[in-house]
Amino acid sequence: MCGAKVGGLSVEGINTTKEAVIQGQVLRGTGDDATPVAGAYVRLLDKSGEFTAEVPTSATGHFRFFAGDGQWTLRTLAPKADPVDRVVQAQTGSVAEVQISI
Amino acid sequence: MSRENSLVSAQWAEDNIDTPGVVIIEVDEDTTAYDKGHIKGAIKLDWTTDLQDQVRRDFVNKEQFEALLSSRGVSNDDTVVLYGGNNNWFAAYAYWYFKLYGHQDVKLIDGGRKKWELDSRELTDELPERPTTTYVAQEQDRTIRAFRDDVVAAIGTQNLVDVRSPDEYAGRLLAPAHLPQEQSQRAGHIPTSVNVPWSKNANDDGTFKSDADLQALYEEVGFDESKDTIALCRIGERSSLTWFVLQEILGKKNVKNYDGSWTEYGSLVGVPIALGDEPGDA
């Protein structure tokens, strides 16, 4: 995708020392044929499985959350695809990058 | 009120796009979402510029609301059908806002923009043209709006329903996790408020759960039918959705939304705050 940065979204302007960032990209397919999915819904569930936040993916399939320290689950919903769950660890001062294939 | 009077399906909305007297309105947290594509014929209201006073922290006044709806071509006798992203958070906020100013016939599209998109229904970037009207609003209906003094007085005496996520309620997060966490106010919750995250009202696709499931949800946390109720969140939009569930779907009486919510309460000097997962004592 034109302009998409290898390794994920730019964190310019974000004080990453104070935030526990979880971010990534939703792709349809795998490997070289994978294409970014715009307008998928990624929801952040806490360790008890409770909804914490949800964002639609950008035109490049990217999403970002500002979480807290600990374990989270990303649940991805998209048209014509089954929901996909991914477990991720977040930590203040670091950026957790997650690639999700649907 | 009831589900039939306040909620329509995505299919109903699609079938009534061209019905005279039906005005579909998108209200989103992401105020650019409409511009990227919206339901055909829908107009946009921007909650940050159209619905908020641009100097004081308050809503636009009656005259400004009248001027807004007149310029957008909304009539008093129109059926206003609202939808938006984020599981209808801001559409529910707009629903409550329309009710605050006395609009009679307002409905929410069940599931909002997410359900519409997951159904792969059509979106367009065409902008509709609507002739201007002369809209007349009512004075604000204060029976559905709570202010800070109402909330402080309700501690230990009314149903206080905090609809933020468990981590925000407990004080582990200050804002929903799609927003940066740097905030000036204190973390935690109002003592005696119970935590019923707004999301428990909804299915994964954003549609509301059944009346029986919703009723059981509030019974589980000891909702007292004999008491008045105040719902709150961080800025009053998620709690509008819970207000909608309690008053418009379940028909509970005397439910108010506290639009000042945690960004106000958590900044007040001298008020009690509870931390952790339990409601705490008055």
Automatic annotation (TrEMBL), chain A:
<dbReference type="Pfam" id="PF07210">
    <property type="entry name" value="DUF1416"/>
</dbReference>
<protein>
    <submittedName>
        <fullName>DUF1416 domain-containing protein</fullName>
    </submittedName>
</protein>
<dbReference type="InterPro" id="IPR010814">
    <property type="entry name" value="DUF1416"/>
</dbReference>
Automatic annotation (TrEMBL), chain B:
<dbReference type="GO" id="GO:0004792">
    <property type="term" value="F:thiosulfate-cyanide sulfurtransferase activity"/>
</dbReference>
<dbReference type="InterPro" id="IPR036873">
    <property type="entry name" value="Rhodanese-like_dom_sf"/>
</dbReference>
<dbReference type="InterPro" id="IPR051126">
    <property type="entry name" value="Thiosulfate_sulfurtransferase"/>
</dbReference>
<dbReference type="InterPro" id="IPR001763">
    <property type="entry name" value="Rhodanese-like_dom"/>
</dbReference>
<protein>
    <recommendedName>
        <fullName>Sulfurtransferase</fullName>
    </recommendedName>
</protein>
<keyword id="KW-0677">Repeat</keyword>
<keyword id="KW-0808">Transferase</keyword>
<feature type="domain" description="Rhodanese">
    <location>
        <begin position="18"/>
        <end position="125"/>
    </location>
</feature>
<dbReference type="InterPro" id="IPR001307">
    <property type="entry name" value="Thiosulphate_STrfase_CS"/>
</dbReference>
<dbReference type="Pfam" id="PF00581">
    <property type="entry name" value="Rhodanese"/>
</dbReference>
<feature type="domain" description="Rhodanese">
    <location>
        <begin position="154"/>
        <end position="274"/>
    </location>
</feature>
